[in-house]
Amino acid sequence: SAVISQKPSRDICQRGTSLTIQCQVDSQVTMMFWYRQQPGQSLTLIATANQGSEATYESGFVIDKFPISRPNLTFSTLTVSNMSPEDSSIYLCSVEGGRTPYNEQFFGPGTRLTVL
Amino acid sequence: AQTVTQSQPEMSVQEAETVTLSCTYDTSESDYYLFWYKQPPSRQMILVIRQEAYKQQNATENRFSVNFQKAAKSFSLKISDSQLGDAAMYFCAYRGAQKLVFGQGTRLTINP
Question: What is the pLDDT of residues B7-27, one digit of tens each?
Fold first, then answer.
C-alpha cells in the first residue's frame, strides 16, 4: 500500500488567516481526496484533487474557501482560507490507485487544525 | 444518494470477548464495495477489512470478520478475542461508482 505523509500534523491559527496543508505519497496514485472531520463527527469529502485540472468539489464546499492544487501524481495541497473557529477540524487526505488495491482508499495521518 | 447508518454510537466489550458492530446502507447500485475503517486516538484511519458486493463469501482478516447480507443491505463487523489495542472509533464505508461514504461511527471500548 502507499505511504502517505501530511504536513503540518497540527496547527493553531488565528481567525482570518489561511493555512496550507500538504499531502505527499511515496508512489504515483490515480486519485487523491481531501476530507474534513469535525470534532466527534464522521468524515466528509471536501473535494477530489485532479492532476492538471481544477478539483471537483462536493456540495457545500467552494474553491474560494478550500483551494486545492495537484501538480503531479504524488502531491496535493489543501488551503483553508480566511479561517474561522468553525474550521477547527481534522483534515485528511486519501489516495486510490497506483499500488493500492482497486477502489481502496488509504489515508494520511491527518492535520489537526484549531482556529482561535 | 447512498447512505450508511451505524446505529450504535458506543459499544463496550470485555477483553478476550467477541463484539459485533452493526452497519446498514442504502443504495440502488448493484456493484459496490464495503469497508470497515478503524480510527484510534492517533486519528490515523486504518483499513480493517473490505467486502466486494459480488462476492457471497464473507471477508475475514485474522480476528476480524464480516457478516454481509446483500439483500438486507447489512454489513456487520465481528471482532473476536478483543484486545486493548482494538479500542477505537470504527467507521463503516460504502464505495460505489462515485465517492466513499462513511457512517457516523461506533466508539468501541475494551474493558480489561
Answer: 999 999 999 999 999 999 999
